[in-house]
Amino acid sequence: MNGIQQGDPFSPYLFTIVMEGFSYMLEEAISNGNIKNDSTLVRNVSTILKDFDIVSSLRSNHAKSKVYMGPYITNKDFIIDTLG
């Protein structure tokens, strides 16, 4: 078999490297002004997640994912629809 499999001692290091890339993508979007506290935030985060999926060959598992929103979020349906 080729590649790294679950339980491989190298897996945690690879995960850390990949998450550093994802963190960089988010930081870059923030510094470019693409992530702000408005409705574009959700769209841009969704785009970053999709781009990360493509770049890393990983896939977000929506069945295992959750979005937590505070009580003062008024556009919850929009957020849920945008993130899928």
Automatic annotation (TrEMBL):
It comes from the Eukaryota. This is Reverse transcriptase domain-containing protein. It comes from Musa acuminata subsp. malaccensis (Wild banana).
